[in-house]
Amino acid sequence: MQHQRLLIQIEGAIIAAFAMALEYIPHTVGPSAIEVSFGIIPIIIYSLRRGAAAGMVSGLIWGLLDLVLRGLGNGSVLNVWQGLLEFTIAFMVVGLAGVLQKPVQASIQQNTKVKTIALLWSAAFIGTFAKYFCHFLAGAIYWGSYAPKGMNAWLYSLTVNGGSFVAGFILNGIVFGILLAMIPKLYLPKDMFLKVQSEK
Predict the structure, then answer these.
(1) What pLDDT is recorded for position 194?
(2) CATH class label, 2-19+38-189
(3) Most buried residue, 54, 141, 153, 161, by most Cβ within 10 Å?
(4) Every domain of the chain and the residues it spans
(5) Local mean pLDDT, 10-residue blocks, the chain (200 residues)
(6) Predicted TM-score (pTM) of this structure
């Protein structure tokens, strides 16, 4: 049990570092402030492998890395509360996609592909929505002064973060479906994947 816990923690730390590395890929859509966060992808996959709690810890590590490596240096932190919301909570709640861990893994074991794809899209929705809902709140409360003149701060935040959510959700859902077809073992711990293989 101790060895298994350590393995999960190490895997979570590696996933967080990988998510951070993906954030350095240019991810702004066109001339707008809409962004697609590629780091969400490995965090959700890890959450579906190891559960929501482990996914949220990995997301928190990712958020702290992003805060130190990017946020503090480029003026993305306005105050303590905004930093807490956008660089700890927003990144951490991506791991909530792990609430679908058992249904996804059971569906893969039963080889019900249509159901599995639907569950993966649902996980993409949960993780992506949770993150951008936090950014939406922060955008309206803390970044409202950056809205175009005469535009309501809440509407501005909804436009930017809603657009980022939609773009990210679609990208994540497509990637998860492709990975399911190519490498289904990504969604299963090693021992469970070996069991599935032996049953085929």
Answers:
(1) 44
(2) mainly alpha
(3) 161
(4) 2-19+38-189
(5) 84 96 77 80 97 97 94 87 95 98 95 95 98 95 84 91 94 96 89 49
(6) 0.90
